[in-house]
Amino acid sequence: MAQKPSIPKGTRDFSPQEMMRRTYIFETIKSVFRTFGYSPLETPAMENLSTLLGKYGDEGDKLLFKILNSGDYAAGLTDEQVRQASKISEKGLRYDLTVPFARYVVQHQGELVFPFKRFQIQPVWRADRPQKGRYREFYQCDVDVIGSKSLLNEVELVEIVERVFRKLGISVTLKMNNRKILYGIAETIGHADKMVDITVAIDKLEKIGLEAVKAELRERGIEEAAIERLQPILELSGSNMEKLAKLEQVIGSSETGRKGIEEMRTIFGYVEKLGIGLNVELDLSLARGLNYYTGAIFEVKANDYPIGSICGGGRYDDLTGIFGLPNTSGVGISFGADRIYDVMTGLELFPEAVNCTTEVLMLNFGGAEELAALGLLKRLRDLGIAAEIYPEAAKMKKQMEYANRRGIPQVVIVGSEELELRMATVKDMRSGEQTKVAFDIFEQHFE
Amino acid sequence: MAQKPSIPKGTRDFSPQEMMRRTYIFETIKSVFRTFGYSPLETPAMENLSTLLGKYGDEGDKLLFKILNSGDYAAGLTDEQVRQASKISEKGLRYDLTVPFARYVVQHQGELVFPFKRFQIQPVWRADRPQKGRYREFYQCDVDVIGSKSLLNEVELVEIVERVFRKLGISVTLKMNNRKILYGIAETIGHADKMVDITVAIDKLEKIGLEAVKAELRERGIEEAAIERLQPILELSGSNMEKLAKLEQVIGSSETGRKGIEEMRTIFGYVEKLGIGLNVELDLSLARGLNYYTGAIFEVKANDYPIGSICGGGRYDDLTGIFGLPNTSGVGISFGADRIYDVMTGLELFPEAVNCTTEVLMLNFGGAEELAALGLLKRLRDLGIAAEIYPEAAKMKKQMEYANRRGIPQVVIVGSEELELRMATVKDMRSGEQTKVAFDIFEQHFE
Lengths: 447, 447
Known about the structure:
The structure is a homodimer.
Chain A: H1 16-35, E1 39-40, E2 46-48, H2 49-52, H3 57-62, E3 66-68, H4 79-84, E4 89-93, H5 98-107, E5 116-125, E6 137-146, H6 152-168, E7 172-178, H7 179-188, H8 195-203, H9 205-208, H10 210-219, H11 224-234, H12 240-251, H13 255-273, E8 279-282, E9 296-302, E10 311-316, E11 330-335, H14 337-346, E12 360-362, H15 367-382, E13 387-389, H16 396-406, E14 410-413, H17 416-421, E15 423-428, E16 434-438
Parallel strand pairs in A: 1-5, 7-8, 12-13, 12-14
Antiparallel strand pairs in A: 2-4, 3-4, 5-6, 6-11, 7-9, 9-10, 10-11, 14-15, 15-16
Helix pairs in contact in A: 1-6, 1-14, 6-13, 7-8, 7-13, 8-10, 12-13
């Protein structure tokens, strides 16, 4: 056992400092969710494999962490049976929060009040190859409403994005798209089946330029005439409403396309009328979750920090169908806590107070001095101030070093002289300044 | 997929109402931990099996949930290899928070400042047979300090117990014992090796009476003369200090016993001098964790609700030795969230506010009325008030039913008349009372 212990690759310990910062992010997000009337929900880490398998594609199935049945599970099995794992594992760790949410809604549909608004902040596990910024255990932070088709829900999510990032101090742009518009574009040029191909090509416009995109479209089997018809869409500019107007001229013959345009007009209209102070941009190249989203698509990027999407989501018209409850529309977004953490660390956005766990350290000189310090300590704690006493009457240097290394900003000295005068010495560890504070009004100094 | 989905036995979904209540418990406990200068820590759900195996006894090893290696893990293995699971599983879900904490401290010893005070609130998993009140996934809520032998740490834990249960409104008794005293008793009567047997017999005193205990001691191989010497201990009464004084007369010849008595005198002395208003009781029959605790032992019981221990812990002199860092003493306690939840539910101790997620519902009448309602809604949310609007202009009856079923205490009506007069109607859902509130001062009504 002399070997230094370690943790599985792709997993992390969160140190006190990291925890303080993560808690700050989660609490900020949660407080906004609550303000909007979303209720907390938690589901178990393990789900039945029958719940998880087949929901994330073949690739996803391979990335599920499976749990061995307990007991003498594998005796007498053939290699083949073991390889299939069907007899030795019936449970897996959740892969996201969306499938467990859908499972919960179907399982408890009789008890729930719809529209059902819930948020869920829990870890998920994926057997991905670990690499920088990609972990096998990470938190998701989801907010969804299910059982309402109203676009007010989309508008509410825009407001939530605005409030969360304003509170965190991160300047962001919300990019929005709509799967119905993308379908309308593909349909208009006679390639309804190639919606994803077309979107993926458009997505590269900024990176590779107009001509290269056209070449790629040709490669993907779109003929010249169709590409011509796409031209105005590739050159869209102006305000969101202007873009929608131009778009309508091109794809207005597609019923689905018109519906998508109408949805976005409604959403952008509310955003304007409500004065939601967020940079919201219609971006036709946004190709997130095209396999399951059916309406609006959201993606948030930090304006001042080069990192991928820090929040995203969309409308799904049939989330619970896979569990036997059809026609239940939902819309939701997910905040990426790890990336938000990186942005805030990179831009130094964490408030000073988030970095210290203890505000006041009482030095310990033993005997009657210690007892007096303990009495003062109690009064600080009664006020909710995080305070502690060094647990032993160690050398003062050692105690001061403890305060320094822990980053405790204030140290209180109650030595024999202080005890006699009934005045504590309070030392500000940053400025080095010392103040005498009478025992009688001690706690007021820290309020 | 028509079959209703379910979750693995022994696991639970936590509904919004349960989550609100659980969050209340966790937040109360956390706020006390923080006030005492403890820092948050989180470790991964999965640990290497080498970290977990052999730490919880043979029985514990069997109760670990093991995770299948990902990939084509089991091809070409014999039945025997599979049964041993050594080639197909290298990771397990954590069984408690203590072993991961010890692993963390050893792994990060170079970066940590000692004494290291941490709290950790995370789920653990045990493949126990599920039954009423026993789950396969449950939260532990641990607070520990490591790297200090000072008894002030024990005193601090007594204060933490007092504050947590005072804040939660649960009347409790803290029972304390000391493994050194138990050893001293066994040593004094010439049966140092039978410490556990003797303690287990004493534990039954209240249930089966003095004579039956003596009979049991005889059965366990303690001879008559030794039982005679135990007699004063079985009849201990009076205050904690009086009990310790009597105990000293009996076991004063045992050095370990004397040390235990001295420790408890110090702890009880502080509790008295600091005026910690908690019923603390020396209870020699307390036999918790005798395999690993080496000094003080804690156990908390609710005074008004018949349920087992709701909090417990103790001093362990060599927690990190198993990972190669010897001589590092720690002391800690763990709060039982599930039982605390049951006590609070049983005694109806949850504050009213904990039961509702949304404080105000704005009814939706569409058009200009909706827009006005959205404006008012924003002002409520700016104040941090949890408020929402019904997302569609549905029939009023349906919207009111939604408010009722969700337990939303206040409903706001902005119909055509209200819009004209610029006065909202606020309905208190409990009393049925309606109030007119001018738009201009709308949010003030809810502050």
